[in-house]
Amino acid sequence: MLLPALVLSVLAPAQQNYQPLKVPGFFDDRMVLQAGEPITIWGTGEPRTRVHLTIAAEADWTETLAAAHGNVGANGRWSLQLPAQEASYASYRIELVGVGGMQIWEEVQFGEVWFAAGQSNMEWPMSRATGWNELRQRMTEDHRYRGLLSRVRFYDAQYTATGGGGAWSKQTVEGMQPHSFRRGKWSRADEDDFHRMSAVAWYFAHFLQRKLDCPVGVIEVAAGGTPTEAWVDPAVLAAQASTSALVAEGSWLDNPALSAWCRDRARQNLATAFAEGWQI
């Protein structure tokens, strides 16, 4: 495998400004990718340029196990597919290289991947679940058990704000944008962040891991108070007769197709913004 610096020098002539190579946030260190199926990784970058993706065992990352190459479309979007990998507790390294930069993801595993989506019931954390104190005590005293917990990983999504009441600060309002609203990282269930993991997702993932004996990754996309349509692309809603009214032209705060609860709560959240004339 070519060294990253050499690859970049071949792909990117000097003194050229390119759009950065970007991927969704859940493509990151320590992620779990679905085993037994082709692996699709996608993102954005400089139109009409090449993108290269490689997988190597972390124990010897100089030997490429699989690779994929392709072009960024005229719209700046790209998608690459790697061959299916077997489930394994081994760690892998994935490199993504293009003229807009390079990303390296380490401690990657292949196993089962599930989404944990919903509202406050799915969001309910381990720290507030029945039996949390006993589980935490066992983690402290039983190192073998703690090691077993490490086989479950979760992408802990943190949001700028969710369905709480009260007026938002200017910083919060500015953070309510698609590119900044959600952030997160992959963590293992034997680490300090475990207390934030969805309790429902944890017990499901723990059962699945023991049943299948493979790594299990959970991507949490639960936010209290959010209706289903809040997670759907507006263009998709507009294309369906049964949901097009939800994205009708005009202020959504005055849209009767949206629940009164959502609109009233939004007025509370944006009260200061309206009073002080912030740009929204």
Q: Give the averaged pLDDT, no decimals.
A: 89
Helical stretch tally: 9
Beta percentage is 25-35%
Q: What is the end-to-end distance?
A: 48 Å
Shape descriptor reads globular
- Total beta strand runs: 10
Low-confidence stretches: 1-15
How is the main sheet built?
8 strands, mixed
Proportion of residues in helical segments: 25-40%
Q: Give, in order, the helices and strands.
A: HEEEEEEEHHHEHEHEHHH
Structural class: alpha/beta
Characterization of the model:
- The strands form 2 sheets. Strands 1, 3, 4, 6, 7, 8, 9 and 10 form an 8-stranded mixed sheet that branches.
- The chain has 9 helices and 10 strands.
- It is α/β, with parallel strands linked by helices.
- It has helices at 4-11, 120-123, 132-141, 143-149, 170-174, 199-212, 234-239, 260-269, 271-276, and strands spanning 32-34, 39-44, 50-57, 64-71, 77-82, 88-98, 101-118, 152-159, 182-188, 216-222.
Secondary structure layout plus pairing:
Elements lengths: L3 H8 L20 E3 L4 E6 L5 E8 L6 E8 L5 E6 L5 E11 L2 E18 L1 H4 L8 H10 L1 H7 L2 E8 L10 H5 L7 E7 L10 H14 L3 E7 L11 H6 L20 H10 L1 H6 L4
Parallel strand pairs: 1-7, 7-10, 8-10
Antiparallel strand pairs: 2-5, 3-4, 3-6, 6-7, 8-9
